[in-house]
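Worked problem 6 (solution included).
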Amino acid sequence: MARNKEFDVDTVLGKAMTVFWRQGYEMTSMQDLVNHMGIHKRSMYDTFGDKHKLFMKVMDRYAENMQTKIDQRIQSLHSAKEAIRLLFEMTVTKDESEPEGCLIVNTAVELSIHDPEAADMVNDSLLNTEKTLQELVRHGQENGEISGTLDAAALSEYLNNALVGLCVMVKTTPDTAKLKRIIDTTLTALERS
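Solution. The predicted structure is:
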């Protein structure tokens, strides 16, 4: 007879996400996960598989959560420029309970070279962000906020690259004023010519 789980899978997955986000994949041990998730090692293996499988589930959850958060925050904005600015500002002004930076970007830096599965997940997530940016740029071009002479695909690639760079900067500097200046300078690319 199978035992009922004595924990909420979603809750412990969220705890694992926080550990990986703070420490990275390589620096997180199975004991760290067991301690922070509050479950037995056997339960973790039975529910999630090994550390790598757990990490992939965490990455999937993180990407879904971030896309939902982005969609909810920008859908009420009528200005494409405001929506794009909000994406950048979300990187700098995070919930205090969240670790610094972005788990996707952290993983890109840490694992993409030697973990094809993690690299695929990172690429998918970054492409989703780029797609969101491209939709916003096109909307801005249609309503005259953003110059139609700029190529929407190229501009969204540029903005996505700048956003990834900002995610790295957030981890290396506590200077919020500097980060906001970087955002302001980056977004001058949206000004009409």
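Discussion: The chain has a mean pLDDT of 90.
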